Amino acid sequence: MSASDGASDAVSAGPAAAARPRNRKQLIVEAAGQVFSARGYHAASMEEIAAGVGISAAALYRHFPNKYALFAECADVMVDRLVAALDQAPPEASLHDVLAALTRVTVAHRAAGGLYRWEARYLAPVDRRRVRGKFGQVVDRVTEVVRREHPAPEDRLRAVAALGAIGSITMHHTSMGVRKIENLLVYAATRVAATDPAAAAGSAGLVELLAPPVPRTRRAEILAAAVPLFARDGFATVTNGQIAQAVGLAPSALYRHYPGKVDILVAACLQAAGLLGQAVERSLHRAGDPRDTVLALTAAYVAYSFEHNALTSVAEAELGGLPADVRRPLLLAQREHIAVWEQQLRAARPELDPRQARLLVHAGFGVVVEAGRALRWRDTVAHREAVTALVIGALL
């Protein structure tokens, strides 16, 4: 570090440079978690993170040698908060109290929590195992309480799904008072944990999904080959060479069909939006009263998520990396989809206001993601119906 670097830090920090806060490292981790969550690991920059703390990038490197070290620290710190919250709860704590403790931590750090949903795949294997081990401790504790208070099949799945309802708050921007958010999430998570996974038996019969077209053109083959790669490794790390190899083409041949890699991602997001829109339309057409409609919507969304898991994860994880002119219509379609759910849920539960309904809808989506992952997205009728039941527990 040169003298000029120190001077630039003092200038950027202004009068505060003379009294550097003792919690500077904590402030950096907080700011970094929000940037990683909002922009993704690869799109985030050390300069942007430093600006969020009010220091220079050079000063940031005094605390962390590189972006990855900061990223790994963020992942550790956030899961450590959840573990600490449970450590403070007495062994005899009720399910409500355990879930409330986890909810308070999650809501307090809402802006940074999205890092786990998709970005944790960029952790090195040893770091990923460590973070998963800590999450495993959280799941084990919640499962223990669920088993004690609600003895029924699939106690661990119900615990994971309840945590998914709570974690959903990190994936959207619905604005409410903090206490109201916490109360509603705890209510939803508690209901999920108490739900019999067999409660929605027969719901799979409500679903009739349209399958994506069979790849009959080279362009469609490229899209079909790229989506699993994007889902597994992340858009930023997949190369044109990998996509070309999966299709049996030379990398240069891709450009005859897509101008660039981002155009393949755009096509994937558009396909996901189209298939989901069709599933919603069919659900609304077949449903009866408002509660039946919510059940039909849920069954269709769960079936869609299992059947098109790779496509769904790509569309959700990579949307933020799309060019703004392409992202706007996709975000509009996403909002319209949420509005349909909100309208139908409020028809079934008139006591809910729009924001409450929206928050519960997102909680239901969180249940699908985490329960589906716990089931390794093995697409069976039993798995679809179990997850549908858990989502209905959160909503109705």
Structure in a nutshell:
With 396 residues, this protein is mainly alpha-helical.
What can you tell me about this protein's structure?
This protein is mainly α. It contains 18 helices and no strands. α6 packs parallel to α9 (155-167). The N and C termini lie far apart (59 Å). Residues 1-18 have low confidence and may be disordered.
Straight-line distance between termini: 59 Å
Number of helices: 18
Question: Total number of β-strand segments?
Answer: 0
**Residue windows where pLDDT falls under 50 for at least 5 positions:** 1-18
Major β-sheet profile: none
Rg: 22 Å
Overall average pLDDT: 89
The portion of residues forming beta strands comes to under 5%
- Helical residues, percent: over 70%
Outline the fold blueprint.
Layout: H1 3-13, H2 24-39, H3 46-53, H4 57-63, H5 67-87, H6 95-108, H7 110-118, H8 125-149, H9 155-167, H10 178-193, H11 218-233, H12 240-247, H13 261-286, H14 290-307, H15 309-318, H16 324-348, H17 354-374, H18 381-395
